[in-house]
Input
Amino acid sequence: MTGGGALSIASGLATGGEVSVGKGLLKSRNNSKSGNNVADGVKLGKRLASEQQTKETGTTMAGAGHKRKIDDEERLVKVYGGDASSWTKKSSSTYSSKDGKIIETHWYEKDGIKYEMKTKITPQTYQPKK
Output
């Protein structure tokens, strides 16, 4: 079972999905609406980055094998089962989009199965806490 959060957010980034974005790019070239072409290209880049990030093994941010505890540990155990020591919170690599945003996917993981995936989009000036 995988969480649907990242893909639903990614779908929202490229409204209409890959096929309609592709058609939109061709249409905008034919109609000389280059602003739409650029915007569609940025959205497509974000969507593809998010989809690729969902396939990564990720880096542990909290939980099993990390000094930081997962904030939602009790809820995860109650909803999905297992014990607290079997859960990790992970993050993907980052992608810098052409509009200056940083795309990163986070999820919870237990026994190699990803839960509650979400794609985070932040300004490029953002510096995560260490």
Observations:
- The longest strand covers residues 113-123.
- Strands lie at 59-63, 87-91, 95-96, 101-110, 113-123.
- The mean pLDDT is 74.
- The helical segments are 5-13, 17-30, 34-53, 73-80.
